[in-house]
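Re: folding output
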Amino acid sequence: MRRLTTIPGVGAITAATIKALVPDPGGFKSARHFAAWLGLTPRPHSSGGKERLGRISKMGNPELRSILVVGATAVLRLVRNDVRARPWLKALLARRPFKVAAVAQANKTARIIWALLDKGEIYRRPDPLAIAAVTQ
């Protein structure tokens, strides 16, 4: 549980809820499947050979999904005023409404949670210098 609290937007309550409600992470094929189980991935719509992604599916536990979105909202509020924030989040906030960005961040957080639970690793914050080198 302590490993989960190192992720931005995940506190003690969120970590305890995840531990209580999430089954064995090895039962999910990938992080995307875990995020889909939580209902944080876009629902696909196909018609006439065109595939489009719509709103989130909301298939999973609404309490767990809500807790992750609230944590993501806290992260985005900090990022809004931070000059040193991750470029991905800054760009996301520039092009999408705040609540859409919060769900996208919750999706990303869910995928990180799955990786930590499945592989037994600890969370390592991305190096800002490495990110800047990749984005330039």
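--- second protein (sequence, then structure) ---
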Amino acid sequence: MPFYPAANNILQKRWNQRAYELHVKKKKAMKSGLDTKKPKSFIHLKVNLKRMQSEEERQASIDYENRILLAKLTNVLRSTGQLDNWNYDYELHSKSLNQMKMAEEREKINQENQKILKRLKERSSNFDADKWEDEYLMHNYYLDLKNSTTKNFELDVRGMDQEQALYFYGDDRHKRKVRAQYDKVSSNGDTASLAHSQAAVSEKSIKGDEMPNMVELKISKNVSRKKRRTVPRLPAIGMERKKEIERKKKEAAAKTAHYDDKDEAVKLFKASKGMGKPDVVVAQTLAKRKYSQRQQTKSKFEEQFDLNLEEELSAHLDDDYQHLVSALLATREDYDAEAIHGALKGEGPFTETLVEILSTRNNGALSSIKTAYARKYSKELEEDIKSEVKGQLRHLLISLTRGKRGELPVVDNDAAEKDAEQLKATQEDERWNSDSGKMADLLRTASWSHIVTVLHQYEKMTGKNTLDEMERLLGGDYRDAMSSLVKCLSDCPMFLAEQIHQNLQPSGDETTVMRIIIMRSEIDMALIRKAYKRLYGETLMDAVAKKLPLTSKRALVQMVVVHGAPEKPPSNPSQDKQQEADQKHAPSPSHPQHPKPLKRPPPKKDATIAPDNPLAKGNLKTSSKLGAAKSPRMERKADGNISQKGNQADQIEGSTVSLQKNGPDNL
């Protein structure tokens, strides 16, 4: 900068420009105190992308070759021993010129195999299990027959010493072979190891050669007696055996276990908690019990566990079993009231249900039903009938509901005949009305027995069938109700069998079948079973099991089997055992009775032994002092006891006396 200001502005500008250039020059010439150079690069830290790419490509090729090798090795291991495992696709691409012919041969072989398989499936087995069973029973029968008719030989031991007599009259020879050693009297006379009766015989025989008297023997009280042989019965074979097996199965199914309310409550409690199958437990407990036992089980369950049995079981059952449990545990009047209410509201058969319930209950039951109906639905039964039903049917149902009819079983035939005449005298159009006339009076107050007798008398007088006349004169629901009433009064089991059959059809009502089985199980189920079999040719159990579309049909079948079995009258147990024993030993009616086996006659009292008897000769050499051989028939058991045969022993004692008189010298 000059010390003095410039003379003009141009000069000042030049000076400033020159000063700036000098400043820039000095600035460039200055050295920095910081090292701002790039960091030094080392060779081993540099990334060579090309090299990495080449290595990755090489590794990829190696992995590809390894996968191919692994596939080949896997195919070799999976192969079943081909000749050239290294060329596994040889069979897929066969180079044979006979490929078409080979394919035809394979097709032919395949067709032949299919024909053989078809013949094998159509072929039935050659063996017959029933025939085998019959042959086995007949084989056992022949063996028993042989054993019962085999001749029983008795040995004559006159002239034999005591040891030989005991030997022949002891156990049979097969048992003696198994026995380790035969009990004998020792040489020094020791009889401690023998039984009491054997010791008595042995001590007596040691003192002398004579056999002891039978009265002196201390024989045990447990006398072994031979069983009386009986002729075996001819076994039941073929269809008879099958019928016997089926009968035993039915009897076993009809038998119920002993009832214990506490045990039943425990089983139902376990089933309600998931410990077991609830449907099976219900079928085995509630379905097999009577109405009073079911109510007792229900009370015991609530008392013991403080729970509601129906609610506990329903939690683990489907809808069908829930309805069944509700019906089994409900009281009779509640169940009838529910069925009547459902019929009035259009659920299930209308006239048949109402007539069946109202005509088969007595006055006390009808009163209980009306009370239960009013309690459950807050409405009187008669009022509900008046509001739901009209016409002659309403008067009929109200007459049946009143429950004021006579219940005496005795029928006055004269009064019944008089009522039948009045019924005949009534005009045809008004004869069967339920609101006025003689029939209306009978429906209100007369007993059912009296009404049935009146209808029978009417048929005798007119020669007409009551049902046919009702079908001709009446119509609508009233005709169905009157026909159901006459059928129910004439033959109630047959009427109920018809109702069960109708409701087992696809268009029927399953709850009606359940209600009839439950309500009539303890009353006339056996008669219903017979009527159903007579009408439709099959058992009620089979029909329910095949046609009823409910999961609870197993329990209903159990009820029919158990409660429908005919009850046997009580009898004396000892008398039953005696009859069974007599029947067991009685000869078969189809087989002639065999004669009794022949036995050797008893020896005569004055009989003597012949001199040429070999048994007598052998005994004379050994025992010269033997006067006579006393030979009672004795049987020796495993415990060594000797038993005496009464009549035969007396005969032998008599013969012994005669032999002692003669003596051995006289022989």
